[in-house]
Amino acid sequence: MYAQTPGSETSGVILDVKGQPIPGATIKNEKTAKVAISDGNGRYKIAAAKGETLTYTFVGYTSKTIVFDNQNQLNITLTEASDKTLNEVVVVGYGTQKRSDVTGSVVSVPKSRLSQLPVTNILQSIQGAVAGVNITSSSSVPGSQPNALIRGQNSISASAGPYVVVDGVPLTKTGGSLNDINPNDIASVEILKDASATAIYGTNGSNGVILITTKRGTTGKPVIRYNGYAGIDNIAHILEPRSGEEYVQKYADFLKQTNQTQTRPVPNVGELAAYNAGTTTDWVDEATQQGVIQDHNVSVSGGTSDVKYFISGDYLDQKGVIKGYQFNRIGLRSNLDVNVTSFLTVGTSLFLTSNNFDGGRANLLLATAMSPYGQEYNANGSYKIFPMEPELLYTNPLLGLKTTQISRTTNVNGNGYAEIKFPGALTGLKFRLNAGYTYFPERRGSYVGRLANDNNGTASSFNASTNSYTIENILTYSKDIKKHHFDFTALYSAQERKYNSTTAGAVGFINDELGLDNIGSGATQTSSSYRDRYGLNSQMGRLFYSYDSRYLLTLTARRDGSSVFGANTTKYGVFPSAAIGWNITNESFMKDIKAISNLKLRLSYGKTGNEAVGVYKTITTEGAVRSPFNGISTIGVAPNNLGNILLQWETTKTANLGLDFGLLNNRITGSIEAYQNKTSGLLLSRSLPIITGYSNVLENIGKTTNKGLELTLTTQNFAGKNFRWETMIVFATNKNKITDLYGDGKDDLGNRWFIGQPINVVYDYKMTGVWQTGEDVSKQDPTAKPGSLKFADLNGDGKITADDRTILGQTAPKWTGGITNTFHYKNLNLSVFIQTAQGMTKNNPDLTYGDETGRRNTPAEIGYWTPENQSQTRPALSYNNTLGYGYASDASYTRIKDVTLSYVFSQNMLDKLHLGGLTIYASGRNLHTFTNWVGWDPEQTFYTRGSGNSGANQQAFSADWTNNYPVTRTFVLGLNVSLR
């Protein structure tokens, strides 16, 4: 409490209607013009005399005026303004605007998604919660980052990921990722979707922009906050292998269907001992474990009117549900703002993040293939290399735990700014200098030795670093002339990224003692190194004009020069955009229409570019090769990349029409948007005759279109004294298609690209069932037998050939949506979020399990045809999938994404506990999935044996099978507390 002199000053706490303190509220003495700001706990102190008027204000809340009557303490409750959404300040890139002034498509992620969720990456919180932003997780490996796609796919081969900016400085292209940003440090997230909003970032904004603002200090004494949670992870759905009895029956059925004589009940002699003893091994259970996750975050914030600070530290530890998988992150952040003089402000946004993914990993793919009668251990307790001896095709899925694996990254990020406000006649003019530097080292290492089935010993070490900087000079000018308002922004910036890496490897170690720590002791040595540089120079101008807060205009133009383009064309591209807005509600004819509290129409059109090509792809390069010459191994060169010095930007022209609305005093609010993107000059690889020495060359060819509809709706369903119920619904459709490829109107069958069809489709045979005993196959598929898959003879030639393939569906969802219901009863809050993705088709690797001539186990959920069950969905065990059919399946799903129950302690209770704030919560994620998909999960990718490099070296730390990590169900208990 503050010491007070009666009649000379007053103090108190500023609260919202839920009893939560409001930091940063303004208290003004109208007579003396003295101003105070509430601290992080909502407390304030201000000088006042009896009869003087005090005004309490905060953005988004209705102001309150009190006549001071010598009260020593004044606790004030502010209520949310009915037009809070319109007055909300949002980040729009190189500045902020009131929501009512925004003309482009800018969406703020709900604040409720930024806390009280057990996520390691902020994209996991956004999934399904923002219309038009499709976030997918092909794998749930601890520490992995989801993929984000804003408004669908425009380019065929270029990266489609959004550009990420943190505190005004790019995170994308620096080597780092959103894994390096602690979700607890994030204050707000805005997503820029249309050309008017993204053109300000030029080529970087071609796939949308995610703007992240981290927390900063507030005026007042230090506030210490702790946010933490701990909980458990389990696999949400296990695709269980067959039991011992089912495995034996499958083997007997296989021999019968292939006309073989059965001599033993199991395929291998090594399985007989366990079979005869009646003991089985649950290999999936052996390869998995109870997952545990915990996160602890401590922050300190506060400051004076001239110096404000926010400092935080975070520790995250996650033990995966598959043995060996883990993720550990340690993060530190320091945000500082200093008013050096009345016209100069400087500040920093510094953070350091260390990510650790170390550890050999169990192989879930092999665990599902093991015979339940396979032997896990040798007599001495070591892992048996081949559990199903003499079967040598499948190794023990736990061998990876006996390897040494190192995978670590560090992000050292230093951003600073200086802002000058000009006085006098130049009032409204500001200059800001942003400078950011990132150092991103990576280290990966592997040693595989005897215990993991490598009798020679193989070691590899990879070290890389990315150094990048960004410098931005930003000039802004704001001016009001009666009903006219002007905002002008000009930018000159430069970015550079330098990357270098070295790799060392060796094979042939005397023993496994040193391994990765002494690669030089290996018999055969390999090494390589690489270096590249990327640069971008940019100029930008943006003008915003409004008249009487009714008519809005935004004009933007950005000029980018990229180092990736060729010498025979300009490296620069210009990306203009224009947008208009009409605040219809502010018109005089709307004053008597009480049912409509907000109505704004927005229209924008603009052009963005996409570099879509890596460094040095415009120049012709050759690679070093070894070849024998006169009996000596000699290094020579061979063609590597055929450059094209005529390459230019991919260009996307975007039109957007939006309507923002609020009804019944904003009890119902939302927006409807329609957009269309037309992309031309796609950077595609054109095939060349191999006699030229090159197989392809990049060219600007091809066109696509991409359009969609988005709806966001928020409703206050019930608002009583003790009970409130709110609903938020998001819905988005998207459809892209290829309109041209190589200028000749022809499809590209090899790449599965078809003019008039979506970019990514499933092109395959149309399965109509399974051939049954006694059916006549002669007129449709003469080679088929009972138990073979039945396909449609689409061209009617009496046989199934490649000409019978057709487009079965698109891999991207036709529409996505989410619904969040939030219930409040006094201080108790319950939030239920359901997410859905519909209309996508994917080849199902879980159905293409090759029985591999009866040599492996298969999932119990996936059956097989027999003459008795006459299945119409699954083939016989004897069926050989010679056509390479991918088992296209409906991958649509609806998921109970997260449910959170929280209790916010009242101010009276907090006063007794001497705390500034206290919230406890329980949260569950991925609670249940409704889907027709048969397999682990429709959203995730499951790699089969032999894909990528895993088939060639199963025991190694390969890049594909290690991503076979299914969706996990998470339950946590959390605590958010602040100290006075």
Strand content: over 45%
Structural class per helix/strand content? mainly beta
Identify the quaternary structure here.
Answer: single chain
The N- and C-terminal alpha carbons lie at a distance of 10 Å
Could you report the average pLDDT, rounded to the nearest whole number? 89
Number of strands: 48
Net shape? globular
> Unreliable segments (pLDDT under 50, ≥5 consecutive)?
1-7, 948-959
Enumerate how many helices there are, as a single number.
8
The Rg value, from CA coordinates, equals 32 Å
Major sheet: size, sense and barrel closure?
A: 22 strands, antiparallel, barrel
Helix-residue proportion = under 10%
Protein name: SusC/RagA family TonB-linked outer membrane protein
Subcellular location: Cell outer membrane
InterPro entries: Beta-barrel_TonB_sf, CarboxyPept-like_regulatory, Plug_dom, Plug_dom_sf, TonB-dep_OMP_SusC/RagA, TonB-dep_OMP_SusC/RagA_CS, TonB-dep_rcpt-like
Keywords: Cell outer membrane, Membrane, Signal, Transmembrane, Transmembrane beta strand, Transport
